[in-house]
Amino acid sequence: MSADSRDPLVTRPISDAAPRTLGGSGMPRPGVVSLAIKDQAGLYAAYMPFLKNGGIFVPSNRPYRLGEEVFLVLSLFDRPNKYQVAGRVAWITPVGLANKTPGIGVQLGDDDQGRALRRTVEELLGKTLASQRPTQTL
User: Fold this and answer.
1) 138 inside domain
2) Contact 109, 87 (CB under 8 A)
3) Which residue has the higher pLDDT, 49 or 13?
4) What's the pTM?
5) Alpha carbons 68 and 1: distance in angstroms, whole number
6) pLDDT at position 98
7) Read out DSSP for 52-113?
8) CATH label of the domain that carries residue 48
9) What is the number of domains present in the chain?
10) 102 is in which domain, residue-wise?
């Protein structure tokens, strides 16, 4: 059993499997990434306030490219609603990097959904935003 599987504060992806084309057209389709964050510590570890519009780190072993469009489905704590926002890959932590969880940083879009999610995240984090504790990215 790995250390991650025993640590209740480690945020884990629900799923990041999605077809990469629309129907049979061969046209690129944004990858869908889903994440459930259970508590404030997990949200602090995943939030990327240094990105323009903010961002969320999503653990994944799947390869992505910087700038790739993705669609993020995010559950926060025990809230019944899921946040669904478009974004772009702005950070990649590759598989095999010592002491780091592999995954991507999804930069939130500069639209109503992206701004609403950023406001919600920052309200939930409150003063924790000013903490100097390490996160999954820095």
Assistant:
1) no
2) yes
3) 49
4) 0.79
5) 33
6) 87
7) TT-EEEEE--S---TT-EEEEEEEETT-S-EEEEEEEEEEEE-TT-TT---EEEEEEPSSHH
8) 2.40.10.220
9) 1
10) 3-15+28-128
